Amino acid sequence: MTDPVPTPGASAPAEPYEKRWLALAVIAVTVLLVILDATIVNIALPAVSVDLGIDAATQQWIVTAYTLTFGGFLLLGGRIADFWGRKRTYLVGAGGFAVASALGGLAQNEGMLFAARALQGAFGALLAPASLALLTVLFTDTKERAKAFAVYGAIAGGGSAVGLLLGGVLTEYADWRWCFWVNLPVAVVAILAAIPIVPESRAPGDTSYDVPGAVLVTLGLASFVYGFTLVAENSQENAAAGLTDNAWADPWALLFIGGGALLVAAFVVLELKTRNPLLPMRIVLDRNRGGAYLTSTLVGAGLIGAFFFLSLYFQQVLGYKPVEAGFASLPTTLGVLLSAGGASALVPRVGPKPLMVLGGLLAAAGLFVMSFLGIDSGFWELAFPGQLLLGLGLGFTFVPLSNLALVGAGEHDAGAASAMLNATQQVGASIGTALLATLSVGAITDYVTDAVTSGRNPADPAVGLQAQVEGYTTAFTWAAVLLVLGALVSGVLIKATKDDLPEEMAVPV
Asked: Transmembrane helix: present as a keyword of the record (predicted)?
């Protein structure tokens, strides 16, 4: 006999939904699909770039095209999930994600690949907030919700590293195109399983859409990130031409960055005046939740950038094969698995703040360790301990983030609140990748310039290799700074203790 499911528009059932753990398993698969897809192509970057003729200055768009549309449309996706139906949005998101993945695997040039990645991000923006909102309404028991969020936190923290491993295996033993095609069977299985298992739910009350707000925030974020990308491209071109011009002086880059900031500011003003806004300011202006979102942005900026450059370091400096580079990225996942379970048990007992501060500092320490990597560094010497620390820190960060960002949001705003959490991480990833790429290219340029000044031949392979290392380690250093800032934000803004948490998160006596 089929378990009863909540009727559209109804509140969460008083009795726990019987198939909630099966639903969690199905949702976890697709959440992993979305998160690992942000990094699964990182290992394949060299192969993709050679095959499709993508230069070093624009290859970051293989990553950024995905994270940008993902982050830009997440707020709208969260509202669609709340109002249209979370299960229905989940199914459409998974199906569209599969189609976009198929197109990515068929790409014949960089334009087609970038477009497919952007389409993946757009459907991921439906899938991700619907998934997290479903977890919010399915798990009402304190301990069960903690376990569910531990699963989500482990996926959020370790999914990126799993993507690197899977990307390496597929690139090495099949073809880089399978980094996209592998999503199809997973999505089909998830859809077929979700139809009978995952229940439908919708937000009660006013359910109108804020289309102008969606347009403003998406255009604003796209413009902002594109400005940083122009700086990175200019730095790369100056380095190739042997010029020392300041890439930040490009008026077009400054125009896009400034224009993006203005559009986002206009979005905030609009949201304050709109009757049913895309992002209700009550969600963001809560001190604890706002602190969680800002922390998520900074962590996303440092995390994705670190994975982007680590995969390049393993392959282009140490000469690892793709599958070797994938396995070399596993210590981060190990660290997340070790800390996520402990974090889920500790959040209701010590509160979210201590764990988020500790997690940010541990992750920053891991990146700082990797900033000492060199041409001849052994894997066990720096890369392994650095990644393990990074993973431990991420587990202690993501679990309380997932809890704190949704506490008190209410069923009407569950999708929007979860979308904001995903959006801040993905927008941070987009901006962080562009910013760290800019700093990395600048460091490479400076090293080559200094080498020429000292009489060394810039065409010497040793000079080029050391220049790459300087660029990557500079990126690791600044990524560590971003995570330290995240820890500071958590320490200053988040005031919630275990006694301040609502009853739904209190530990039963």
From this structure: yes
Residue type for position 377: S
Rounded-to-integer distance, Cα 79 and Cα 89, Å = 10
Task: Give the CATH number, domain containing residue 493.
Answer: 1.20.1250.20
Is residue 430 a part of any domain in this protein?
yes
3-class SS shares of the chain: helix, strand, coil, % to 5: 75, 0, 25
d(CA 129, CA 417): 8
Kindly write down the DSSP assignment for every residue of 65-109, as one continuous string: HHHHHHHHHHHHHHHHHHHH-HHHHHHHHHHHHHHHHHHHHT--S
Q: What would the mean pLDDT of 214-227 be, rounded to a whole number?
A: 80
Give the number of other Cβ atoms within 10 Å of residue 423's Cβ: 30
- Report residue 121 CA to chain centroid gap: 11
Q: Is 290 inside any structural domain? A: yes
Residue 426 lies in a domain: yes
Q: Per the structure block, which two tokens stand in for 61? A: 């768009």
| Helical axes 352-370 vs 287-312, angle rounded to 10° | 20
pLDDT, one tens digit per residue, over 444-491 is 888 888 888 888 887 788 888 898 899 999 999 999 999 999 999 999
Residue 503 has pLDDT above 60, yes or no: no
Q: How far is CA 261 from CA 175, 218, 367, in A?
A: 40, 12, 29
Helices then strands (H, E): number in the chain?
A: 18, 0
Look up the pTM and report it: 0.77
Distance from C-alpha of 379 to C-alpha of 372, rounded to nearest angstrom: 12
Q: How many domains does the chain have?
A: 1
| 19: Cα separation from own chain's centroid | 29
Q: Which tokens sit at 230?
A: 């122009």
Structure token pair of residue 495: 């005031």
Q: Which domain holds residue 28?
A: 20-199+210-498
Please provide the size of the chain in residues.
509
Any residues with CB less than 8 A from the CB of 260 and at least 6 apart, and which?
Answer: 219, 220, 221, 222, 223, 224, 225, 226, 227
